[in-house]
Structures are given as structure tokens and as C-alpha cells.
Amino acid sequence: MGYSAEVRKKSIDIIKERKLTAERQADYRKEKIFSEIPEAEQYERDIASCAIKAGRAVFRGGDVKAELEKLKNESLKLQAELETLLKSKGYTPKDLEPFYTCEKCSDTGYIEKDNRTVMCACLKKVMVETACAELNKNSPLSLCRFEDFSLDYYSKEKSPEYPRSSYEQMCNILEYCKRYATSFTPKSESVFMNGKTGLGKTHLSLAIANEVIQRGFGVIYVSAPTVISKLEKEQFSRNKEDNNTEQTLTECDLLIVDDLGTEFTTQFSSKALYNLFNSRLLLGKPIIINTNLNLKELEDTYTQRFVSRIIGEAHRLDFFGRDVRLLKS
Ligand SMILES: [Zn+2]
């Protein structure tokens, strides 16, 4: 997956910072241990000197094999003694080494695979997170959590058009959303949230976003008008290097599009949204869409093909009742 130079630089800086921190902390730990057990420092120097001697032996030539064998045994013996010494004071040899966030690449971001240097999974993960954070910059993400969602404003009276009260319906929806977020995987189903404004769609989709981000997945939360303006900008931008919005939107673990139908609809916007959603569906990646439009209005705004393809595959949640925001004020 290609990223903009900015996202790449930011991500590499994050990994570098992890490495520096791990090494700084190791130096600090070492200093403390050596001041407590001064003999340990001498052991460490002797072990290092075995390695230096081995290097010299190879350089000098002669009976290298015998010399290396001898140095290796000496080093192993010293390491075993150091371990015993450390253990007697409640430490292990690992305490002298940095605790890297990623043991695979020692926080360098790269590993050797099939004789090639490739990006480590940890750096890829940071890139996804950074790219998502970039797109989430203006979303009110931190404002809505499941804990703040109140069912108090939903009526317990049975609504004439629906088989249950809006209170009962919201209990089910809340339960579904919590379960969705806590059991989310990048192969989870898509969700279609439908209903008038002020019934909690935005709150619940933000709560899902928060929970799923905290579980370490790459989530993008955007309103439909923002998606369109970003894609439009990308379409007409000359700097191809930084054109990664569409790719990030397509490849993030979860894409949440708020307020579908409130964007200024043009041929470009309908097509761009259809292509984006369709690409995700083809990849088996979930989308959460929420809209105030009913199915008929959606078909009128987009096309029947759009609605049946995009909405048809999603788990549908119908929000009904009276505007909670009005009741609160
Ligand atoms: Zn790594």
C-alpha cells in the first residue's frame, strides 16, 4: 500500500522514537544494575572483548576455526556466570538489553526475508494508524462513547408503524453496536444505519470507531461531504505522490461514512462513492454507513444499483422515534 511522503516520514519517526526510548531505558537500567553489582559490568566488558578478539582472529587468518571455537566457549562460560550473578540479585541478562516494542525487527521497522529487506508488520501497522489519524483529524472522535449513550430519551410506548417501542429498538441497536465493536475484525459485516436526525446514529458510529481504534485497528470516520471533497481534491491535484486518500479509504480496516446524502450530489460524487464502497465490498472490508434518507430517497439520490449493491449487503439498523436532541434541550 502506498502512502504519502508525510505519512511515511511520520511513521518512521514513530518507530525511531520507540527504538530510542527502549535503548535509553536499557542504558538507565544497566547503569542502575552495574552500580548495584559492579562485577556485572566487568563481565559485560569481558564478553564484548571475546567478540572483538574473534573479529581480529578472522582478520589475521591462521587456524581461525580453533581460535573461534575457543573464544566462543569462553564467551558462553562468561555469559553463564553473568547470568548466575544477575539472578542472585533478582535480575536476568534480558534486563541489560532494550525491551523493544517489536521483537521481530528490534524497532528498526525492517526485517530480512528471503534475502531481501522488507517492511516489518509493526511499521505497516503504524502507517495505517498514521494515515487514518490524518484523515480523522477533523472528526469529533473523542466525544462519543458507549458509556455516554443514554436510553432515557427513547419512548417506551409502542410506535404505530413498528412492532416495538423506540426504547426497545434502541436497546437492541445499542447491544448490537457494542458487540460489533468489541468483536470487530477486518472481515466483520457492513452496517447500514438508517433513520431521522437526532436518534443517535452518529453517536453510536463514533462509539464504535473509538472502541475499534482502541483495539488497534485502522478506522476512518468521515462525513460523506468530506469524502467527496477529499476525493475531488485528489482527482485534481498535480502532486501524485500525495494521492493516497482513496487508497487509505479503500484499505483501512473499517470505514465509517456519516451523513450519506448530505453531500452535494453530482455525477462525480455518486460515482466516486459507489466505486469506493464497491472496492471495499470486493475486498471483503466492512463499511458503516449512516443516513437520514430512507431507501426510496437513497435510490432517487444515487441509483437502484447503488442501493441494492451497497446497502443490500449490510446489516440494517432502523432508528425511529422522536428527535432525542430536541427532547434533551
Ligand atoms: Zn517490527
What does this structure look like?
56% of the residues lie in helices and 10% in strands. The strands form 2 sheets. It has a 5-stranded parallel sheet with strand order 4-5-6-3-7, with helices on both faces. The mean pLDDT is 88. By secondary structure, the protein is α/β, with parallel strands linked by helices. It folds into 2 domains: 5-120, no CATH class; 138-328, Rossmann fold (3-Layer(aba) Sandwich), CATH 3.40.50.300. Bound molecules: zinc ion. Zinc ion is lined by residues 102, 104-105, 120, 122. Zinc ion binds next to loops.
Question: What order do the strands of the largest sheet run in, or round the barrel if closed?
Answer: 4-5-6-3-7
Give the CATH class of the largest domain.
Alpha Beta
Topology as a string of helices (H) and strands (E): HHHEEHHEHEHHEHEHHEH
The CATH architecture term of the largest domain is 3-Layer(aba) Sandwich
Question: What fraction of the residues are assigned to beta strands by DSSP?
Answer: 5-15%
SS-based structural class? alpha/beta
Report helical residue fraction. 55-70%
Distance between the first and last residues' Cα: 46 Å
**What's the pLDDT, averaged over the residues?**
88
Count of alpha/pi helices: 12
- Total of domains: 2
| CA radius of gyration | 28 Å
What general outline do the C-alpha atoms trace? elongated
According to CATH, the fold-level topology of the largest domain is Rossmann fold
- Major β-sheet annotation: 5 strands, parallel
CATH homologous superfamily annotation of the largest domain: P-loop containing nucleotide triphosphate hydrolases
Low-confidence spans: none
Number of strands: 7
Bound molecules: zinc ion
